[in-house]
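Section: Multi-chain targets

For targets with more than one molecule, the full set of components is provided together so that the structure can be written out for the assembly as a whole rather than chain by chain. Components appear in the order listed by the source. The example entry contains two components.
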Amino acid sequence: MAAGNEVSPTYYIQHHLQNLTFGNHPENGWSLASSAEEAREMGFWAVHLDTMGWSIAMGLLFIWLFRKAGKIATTGVPGNLQNAVEMVFEFVESMVQGAFHGRNPLIAPLALTLFVWILLMNTLKIIPVDYFPELFARLGVDYMKIVPTTDPNATLGMALGVFCLILYYSIKMKGVGGFAKELSLTPFNHWALIPFNLLLEIIALLVKPFSLAMRLFGNMFAGEVIFILIAMLPFWAIWLLDVPWAIFHILIVTLQAFIFTVLSVVYLSSAHEHH
Amino acid sequence: MNINMTLIGQTIAFAIFVWFCIKYVWPPISNALHERQKKIADGLDAASRASRDLEVAQEQAEQTLRESKEQASQILEQANKRSAQIVEEAREQARAEGERLVASARSEIEQEVNRAKEDLRSQVSHLAIIGAERVLEASVDEQAHRKLLDELAAEL
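Its structure, encoded as tokens over all components, is:
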């Protein structure tokens, strides 16, 4: 809850949805934003420290866990960690084999990273919405939004990474000419329709990363808002709605990580194919 | 910021959620993991058992082969011995038979010689009588001198 005993619901929600922003304020210079308006005034040149910190932490957790599993890996009976990691690994590998039809050693590790990383970041959502903001408030930090995937910056960042790979492999596999031909001569193979094709194909291309990012962000953000709304119920009633919603989110969290990964792989697969 | 009942409410909800996970979410995952572990362990076990079995079977086969080879050589040796024996026996028999034949031939020859001597003797005595008759011109009674002549012939 925010400062003061009387807290308006609007303020509570807005406070919870505000990232910890560090940026170049026109008046205060490089500083932490102390309100949403200040964060907005910083414009593009600002960083969400909470999103960065938590996503990097989850990435490190992923690397540490899987590295550890890789180190203790045996060909004999696997231990618990190795067993779990192997299962995730096999799951992602079979998914890539099903969705990716080219030959590229980069795709499977990319898919594994995306899946596990997004899964870990989404899972942070299960933690009650007030725990970390409250904890950081004690430490003197005003804002703390711990789920990186409820920040469009994080999801768009990942989607842009995938988009760059799509462009890179489209050009690498088909050549600049081939890629340009694909953009201008499909779906209507006639010179008079080249502008129309170009318009259509470029929109279709740009929509790919955008839809990837917005789908993940939208699902996570909406879920987060509802968690915050539930948290405003009387304290004895919170569990009535919070528990079912959290249980439902076990599904959402996994599903959204899976969808992001599968679609990335499918987009990359079509980037490898000649049309 | 201040702590209020919201936090407690969320804690209750979180506790229930964690309980739910422990009760209903974790067991199937854990079961799947254990099943997988067990399957791998069983597979490895079966493989090592099979290789051990193979080793035993190979050893047995080798053992059997060695035994049969030994037996074969024994049989061969026996057969050799037996054949040598048979040859020896045959040789012995042949020698005995030969000796027997020689002996019988010798006795037959002796008989033959004796008979010839007997014949000769009787003919000589006959000739002597004829000679004496011629000399004495029938003055000798053959009956009367028979005994004498026989004695003469026996002396020959």
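Residues 1-5 of chain A have pLDDT under 50 and may be disordered.
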